[in-house]
Specification:
The complex is a heterodimer of chains A (121) and B (142).
Chain A (H helix, E strand, L loop, with lengths): L8 E4 L2 E7 L4 H18 L3 E8 L5 H16 L3 E5 L3 H10 L8 E2 L2 H9 L4
Parallel strand pairs in A: 2-3, 3-4, 4-5
Antiparallel strand pairs in A: 1-2
Chain B lengths: L7 E2 L4 E5 L4 H16 L3 H22 L2 E10 L2 E10 L7 H4 L13 H8 L2 E7 L3 E9 L2
The chains are: A alpha/beta (121), B alpha+beta (142).
Chain lengths: 121, 142
């Protein structure tokens, strides 16, 4: 697997869809933060779906970065939903002790989009 | 660290240097290749690679450099993989404390050692202050 050179970010209406793929090293993961938060500010997106189905391994560092990115998106006034976590990754993260309880999740991108379009409480 | 009496190694160990952030990719890739070859299920494989990723990251953080060695192991009718992480870093003063959940001297979530131990079938650690640390994890494919 190769390291993604840049993150594919797609605008869908007022939301952004970001796909994390490949085997990310720490520098690639940190670069994501700048690219995603920059895109949210630039496009004035109200929501971001972070698709992680392409990540076959998520260790505690990468999980923490994903949670950080979701927190940053929220600080910019948008909602973040992490979608597509592979079943084996979910099992591993819970046993590892990384529950990502503060992150909104959905099964797939379509459900994540639907979650973002729900009226806010 | 002693290899279990009834456990045999079936192939020459593969070594993987841990020296930079990019080493983590090599660690994960070589374990994935070995696990796929042995017929690991997706959950077992993911757990093993994730545990190795945590341990390799520990080596980088605390020792700066080290080596991971992968061995294929056999016991009874089972085959599995053993990954050994060796460094010549500062060592761990209190192993019992370091193995506790939530313990970390570094700015991380502190799931490293205790988290990695929960993911694998067997976990061994030896450390000597000023000399280094050796961690060995084993996962059975079937």
């Amino acid at each position: 697997m190769t390291v993604a050179e840049s993150v594919p970010i797609v605008q869908l209406g007022s939301s952004l869809l970001v796909s994390l793929q490949g085997d990310l090293d720490d520098n690639a993961v940190l670069r994501l933060e700048a690219e995603i938060t920059g895109a949210v500010a630039r496009t004035r997106a109200t929501g971001v779906v972070i698709e992680v189905g392409g990540l076959s391994v998520v260790d505690s560092f990468i999980a923490r970065i994903i949670a950080r990115i979701a927190g940053m998106i929220r600080l910019l006034g948008a909602e973040a939903v992490v979608v597509g976590i592979q079943p084996a990754v979910a099992i591993t993260l819970i046993e590892l002790g990384v529950g990502m309880q503060h992150v909104h999740t959905a099964l797939n991108a379509a459900e994540g989009m639907a979650l973002l379009q729900r009226p806010r409480d | 660290m002693p290899v279990g009496a009834q456990t045999t190694l079936t192939v020459t160990p593969t070594a993987c240097k841990i020296a930079t952030e990019a080493s983590l990719l090599a660690v994960r890739a070589s374990l994935r290749a070995a696990a796929t070859e042995l017929g690991f299920g997706i959950v077992g494989q993911t757990k093993l690679i994730t545990a190795a990723s945590e341990l390799a990251r520990n080596v980088l953080r605390y020792a700066g450099r080290g080596v991971m060695t992968i061995e294929r192991v056999q016991h009874g009718g089972r085959v599995g993989l053993r990954a050994r992480f060796e460094d010549e870093g500062p060592g761990i003063a209190d192993l019992e404390l370091a193995m506790q959940d939530g313990y970390s001297t570094y700015n991380s979530m502190g799931v490293g050692l205790s988290g990695a131990r929960r993911l694998v079938d067997d976990f061994r650690i030896e450390s000597e202050l000023g000399a280094g640390t050796v961690v060995e994890i084993t996962m059975w494919a079937r």
